[in-house]
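G., the chain you wanted modeled:
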Amino acid sequence: MNATATPAGAWLQAARPATLTVAISAVMVGAAASSHAGVLRFDALAAALISATLIQIGTNFANDVFDAEKGADTSARIGPVRVVQAGLLSAGAVKAAMVITFALAALAGVYLVWSAGWPIVVIGLASIASGIAYTGGPWPLGYHGLGDAFVFAFFGPVAVCGTAFVATGGVPAEAMLASVSVGALATAVLVVNNVRDHGTDRVAGKRTVVVRFGRTFGVWEYRALLIAAYAVPVSMAVWRHALVLLLPLITLPFAMRLSKTLRDEASGPKLNEALASTAKLLLAFSVLFSAALYFR
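Predicted structure as tokens:
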């Protein structure tokens, strides 16, 4: 039996575990980037990781149900199964799960507000609201070409610098710079998704950046995001006179192969692999960058 056909498998599919590297990477890099700025509060970091992961899962639930309702997810879609569109879970059930997940994220955020202050209220509420507004509401961000900016901002500077703030009470320059790498690679994951889905997105009226400007633009956007991500550790190595900060460059050949795949392949399975591999690239890059930031 297909695991997705079971209730547990359907819920796991809706949560999209492969995308959770985005939330994990942001918290990990934020902690490492602030490790020289003061004593790290590991209780706050744990709460930040829980909250960020739950917000990511809640956003995935929102995307599944709202894309199905708006017609962006159809049987013609070449990506992984979307549970509402496939009839594996009802729209009402997924919406309820979305609300519960965001509520649990807010509960973890209460501890962060208690420990780090009112700025966390703004960050938390904005993150949850944007997670819903990405595909839901009267003016969904992803349907108007703003998805890329949303992902870069909330999974880059907001998540990384927010983690640094709750961990130490401040945001060092290293966290601000490192957030560019995380945000760029998180956005690159979305770009692969949008390149793969640009045909069905166009039919559904989902005007992503790739739909607006074409597949070739998406390929070049992906390349530009990779360049931005790798430029950060290089510039920081020069700034801090620390060669260890070049450690993330170990993943550069992998990134170059992914860029070539996106350029050359048009099939669903190949692009599905490229999407999953870009998420793995983000995690590998972040692990190496975190180690470099901590030991520099």
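The chain is about 75% helix and 0% strand.

Shout if anything looks off.
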